[in-house]
TrEMBL record:
It holds the Pfam family p450. Belongs to the cytochrome P450 family. It comes from the Eukaryota. This is Cytochrome P450 84A1-like.
């Protein structure tokens, strides 16, 4: 039954039971929030009570007992981690992250160009691109071998995050899994491999820092996210040399790197693939976008960052994609205390699932909610995704909203713009646009069930 609790199934239940309903799974109370008004009550009116995160046994173990930001409960530790990340790691001022995006997109475009005239699996290629971006931003440029090893570790983490574990719903069954359960062995192994991998990287960075201090020819080296985090590093997690701030340990660094990897990879890749699929299904919109690109950029060069603000229709396409296909369709929060929403009692520790997918298709909030219509965002007063229009919350809203929004949008806009500007696209085997399968699958994100395959041809002069 748990496996059938997807964003689509919960939306169907909401049609019957309303914008707020309760489910009991084993001992776990769950509450589904499916309308803009209910989302506002949870994410704005009572944001302070709903800013905790639920975590399964596997997630707690793999995040070193919530030593990260994404799964830490709301409180001083989370605030401290979030401040470090927002000011140091995700900030627009951190030019290196933006440079990683630009340079990786450049080499991605060359790879596409090398395959002109043949069918390419866009889904697979963009996932490779976003992994390269986050990997490069996090660790700088380290060996190809190291990259492969890290990707394997991530894949196993991803599987384990989604694994069903009865103990999450019936904690009194805990003794079963502790009796040599297979899941526990896999969790142990996965975290062990990450320890070996990142400990080595941290040691290399400590060495780099020492050498830099001694000025041994390390000046001018690219700073990566680990470098930024090392500034706060304290083996014991005590007071740092920055005064009263709490230092961060190796476990915190490992868990934060995982947040960036999981938060910034599949989300951006799924949005790029959906945008391309919707455009290939709607040639009219693709033509409008290509015309805009030709007018603003010209057909003799690629799209640059400085063009993005002038590309109004591109922004509409991106918004419409995020409305119909929010990469994280269910926002998971937890009630910190017993409370009441719209007259209904919500018990302490209830898992609150805010269905951003259903909200983006709410028929009272949107005209023709299931139709891809980017031009709706050209109208005056159209909602924005910054978090105060509750009918459109692909990045969440309030305290736990996405800290990587700017970086994610940059990668998303620049990739879609360049894919549509540099190439024309056809579907393989004479497939018609209306034959494209637009189903999704539910996991950490909601990517396409059938990967998008298309054939590029050169468009630029
Ligand atoms: C199109 C791209 C992206 C989308 C749609 C997206 C969406 C989201 C959403 C919906 C949440 C949860 C909000 C909530 O619970 O209310 C979230 C949280 C988060 N995102 Fe993103 N995200 C994107 C890109 C990124 C990127 C590029 C990064 C990092 C480089 C990132 C890092 C995070 C982190 C660390 C959190 C947890 C924040 C916390 O719990 O305090 N995201 N994101």
């Amino acid at each position: 039954m748990m496996k059938s609790l997807t964003h689509r199934r919960l939306a169907e239940l909401a049609d019957v039971y309303g914008g707020l309903f309760h489910l009991k799974m084993g001992q776990l109370h769950m509450v589904a929030v499916s309308t803009p008004e209910m989302a506002r009550q949870v994410l704005q009116t009572q944001d302070n009570l709903f800013s905790n995160r639920p975590a399964t046994v596997a997630i707690s173990y793999l995040t070193y007992d919530r030593a990260d930001m994404a799964f830490a409960h709301y409180g001083p530790f989370w605030r401290h981690m979030r401040k470090i990340c927002v000011t140091k790691v995700f900030s627009r001022k951190r030019a290196e992250s933006w440079a990683s995006v630009r340079e990786e997109i450049d080499s991605f475009m060359k790879n596409v160009d090398a395959r002109i005239g043949s069918s390419i699996n866009i889904g697979e290629m963009v996932l490779g691109l976003t992994r390269d971006i986050t990997y490069r931003a996090a660790f700088g440029s380290i060996s190809e071998e190291g990259r492969e090893e890290f990707l394997k570790i991530m894949q196993e983490f991803s599987k384990l995050f989604g694994e069903f574990n009865v103990v999450d719903f019936m904690p009194w069954l805990g003794w079963i899994s502790y009796q040599g359960g297979n899941l526990h062995k896999r969790l142990d192994r996965a975290r062990g491999s990450l320890d070996v991998f990142i400990d080595k990287i941290i040691d290399d960075h400590l060495e780099k820092k020492r050498n830099k201090k001694n000025n041994e020819g390390f000046d001018g080296l690219e700073e990566d996210m680990v470098d930024e985090l090392m500034e706060f590093y304290d083996e014991n997690g005590g007071t740092s040399n920055l005064g009263s701030a709490v230092g961060i340990t190796r476990d915190n660094i490992k868990a934060l790197i995982m947040d960036v990897m999981f938060g910034g990879t599949e989300t951006v890749a799924s949005a790029i693939e959906w945008a391309m699929a919707e455009l290939m299904k709607s040639w009219d919109d693709l033509n409008k976008l290509q015309q805009e690109l030709a007018d603003v950029v010209g057909l003799d060069r690629k799209v640059h960052e400085s063009d993005l603000d002038k590309l109004t229709y591109l922004k509409c396409v991106v918004k419409e994609t995020l409305r119909l296909h929010p990469p994280i369709p269910l926002l998971l929060h937890e009630a910190a205390t017993d409370t009441v929403v719209d007259g209904f009692k919500i018990p302490k520790r209830a898992r609150v699932m805010i269905n951003s997918w259903a909200i983006g298709r709410d028929k009272n909030a949107w005209d023709e909610p299931n139709v891809f219509k980017p031009s709706r965002f050209l109208e005056g007063g159209a909602p924005d995704f910054k978090g105060s229009n509750f009918e459109f919350i692909p990045f969440g809203s309030g305290r736990r909203s996405c800290p990587g929004m700017q970086l994610g949008l940059y990668a998303l806009e620049l990739t879609v713009a360049n894919l549509c500007h540099c190439f024309n696209w056809t579907l393989p085997d004479g497939m018609k646009p209306y034959e494209l399968d637009m189903n999704d699958v539910f996991g950490l994100t909601a990517p396409r069930a059938v990967p998008l395959v298309a054939i590029p041809s050169r468009r630029l002069t």
